Amino acid sequence: MADHYEVLGVSRDASAEEIKRAYRKLARKLHPDVNPAPEASDQFKNVTRAYEVLSDSEKRSNYDATGHENGTGGMGGGFGGGDFGGFQDIFETFFGGGGGSGGMGGGMGGGPTGRARRGQDALIMAKIELEDAVFGTEKTLEVDTAVVCPTCDGTCCQPGTHPETCTICNGQGAIRRPVRSILGTVMAAETCSACQGFGTVIPDPCRECSGQGRIRERTSLTIRIPAGVATGTRIQLAGRGEAGPGGGPNADLYVEIEVRQHDVFVRDGDHLLATMSVPMAAAALGTTLTLDTFDGEQEVPVKAGTQSGEVQTLKELGVGRLRGSGRGDLKVTLRVETPSKLDDKQRALLEQLATLRGEETVHGTTEHRGLFSKFRDNFKNL
Questions:
Q1: Are residues 335 and 272 in the same domain?
Q2: Distance CA 156, CA 159 (A)
Q3: Residue environment code for 174-198, b if the CB has 16+ CB neighbours within 10 A, otherwise e
Q4: Do 66 and 90 share a structural domain?
Q5: Among 316, 343, 344, 341, which residue's Cα sits nearest to residue 330?
Q6: CATH, residue 271
Q7: How many domains does the chain divide into?
């Protein structure tokens, strides 16, 4: 492998600026867009590789110490076997634009662009009831979207006609022209304005879709909404979105769920919550309540002595699990109602009950005492 200093024609103690000047001079002379000679291409690769190593202080230090680019005798990274892999960044640093064997084409060297493009993904909303989220449901939605033009079947051409090769760019999709740069005169490529880079023109566009290959249409879509969805859940329908221009593939459609609030039940993850009022006497004596649920009427047991706030759990009557099997639970909070209005007979009966229970004079009690109270009691015992 040739010595990098010799390739650039500089001394081993050359400054970074001297190395840069030497590279620029040789690049102007050997670049493929300037010098078409077969040997110039290989020379240009060697020059660029030498500059890539010597312009990096760490790589240059390793090279000076070992005589090899990676310090171990190997070629290291960079051009990867002789193509222009590492040249892109260097070329852009000095001259701007894109590098590679296509000159300053800015990515135009890949041929014409196809007309067919994928459609754009869309998002629509679907409102459902809480019961639908519990069990899952099917829902029909009206969607405004783009569909393949039925007249031209996505070809963009009036039936009986076809695209023709662009006579301006000869089907290349780009036009090359000479421009002056720091390298001298080089060939640059720009998108053909006549065919917009497609390489073909459509002399007789489809009149149904104005040459787009698709039309707007309102369609009905029936989707399956699984049990367990919640507000904000998005369902992806692959390939059910709008058709792409020029007969391109359909995009995806996303359906975002909104679950309406229920008058009785509140959702808590996979569980359902409800509150039921229990008369004071029924809570004291015990009873059974009936609750109308999504699974029909269910009995809610109230044991004797039930206190306000106690919860009865009805297993497997909650929301179906979106990921997994089974359902959550239905949790019923019992709220004991104290009568606010009593007639004389009711008051007399309650007073009699209070007498029997020794509750004529009621003293409140606390279940927890603070640190100060405990300290006071200890002090009294001293």
A1: yes
A2: 9
A3: bbbeeeebebeebebbebbeebebb
A4: yes
A5: 316
A6: 2.60.260.20
A7: 3
- Other CB atoms closer than 10 Å to residue 330's CB: what's the count? 25
pLDDT digits over 4-61, tens only? Answer: 988 899 998 899 889 988 888 888 788 766 677 778 778 888 888 888 889 888 888 8
CA distances from 92 to 17, 87, 89, 107, 358 (A): 18, 9, 5, 13, 96
CB contact set of 237 (below 8 Å; sequence gap of 6+): 221, 223, 252, 253, 254, 255
**312-349 pLDDT, tens per residue?**
999 999 999 998 899 999 999 999 998 888 899 988 98
Q: How far apart are CA 156 and CA 200, in angstroms?
A: 12
> How many whole angstroms separate alpha carbon 98 and alpha carbon 90?
10
274 contacts 329 by C-beta, under 8 angstroms: no
Beta carbons within 10 angstroms of residue 134's beta carbon: 26
253: Cβ contacts below 8 Å, ≥ 6 apart: 121, 122, 123, 124, 143, 145, 221, 236, 237, 240, 241
Does this model's pTM top 0.85? My answer is: no
